[in-house]
Amino acid sequence: MKPGSLLIIGAWLLLLGGVVDLINNAVGSIFAVSSGDGMPSSAQMFVGMFTAVLIFLGLPVLVALQRKRARVLSLVGVGFLMLTLLAGLVLLVQVLSLVSTQPVTPNDASSSPPIGILVCAIILTIAGTIGGIVEGIAVLRARVLVAGIAWLFFVGALLQLVGFFLEGLPSTLVSSANAAAFDLAIIWSAFYVIRPRSTIAESLQGQSLPQGN
Asked: Which residue ranges does UniProt annotate as crossing the membrane (predicted)?
């Protein structure tokens, strides 16, 4: 399969994952506000796992787009974003397992989380913050994508860090806003590839598509 075709497939994976995740987080935020407990539903977590896989598979597209002027920066940024997704997947699996064995009560929500969940949350926060900042810098340096995408990565990174220090409903809302910023950044990036009259895919013909970390 030609590199240009792989790029288009990756862009569609990013677009699909980003759009579904954006809707999923918006709906989850509405239910979190209405319930007041800040806990996402099991259905929302399952959808989040599905979109994380799609985005994970599509992220190497960002490296391919920016390989001429910011390959190393983009590799580092995408690598940390992939680590963020992996940590998020493990965290969701642990939360789902915990909820299925012992339902979470308001008292449990205010107590210290299990060590495994805490470790995943720390990794997710650090990797997401670094990944968002580095990838934003890569976008500005490569000048292949519009600068607005870089600022969405920066906002997502900042909210990722802030959300770690919050609890309950505020944490859920900030985390949703953080996810929305990242989702919009990857949706915009994907659309830039697959939009009508885009010449990006054709320009990569004959080049090798870099592999994800």
From this structure: 46-65, 72-95, 115-137, 144-166, 172-194
Tell me if 55 sits within 8 A of 18, measured CB to CB: yes
Q: What is the 3-state secondary structure (H, E, C) of 173-188?
A: HHHHHHHHHHHHHHHH
Its sign, for the CA torsion 164, 170, 175, 178, is negative
Mean pLDDT, the chain cut into blocks of 10 residues (213 residues total): 76 95 90 70 90 95 89 94 96 86 55 83 95 96 92 96 86 90 95 72 48 38
Q: Are 144 and 116 in contact (CB under 8 A)?
A: no
Prediction pTM value: 0.85
Q: How many CB atoms lie within 10 A of CB 106?
A: 11
CA distance 89 to 163: 17
- Residue from 59, 58, 33, 29 nearest 44 by CA: 29
Sign of CA dihedral 110, 112, 117, 120: positive
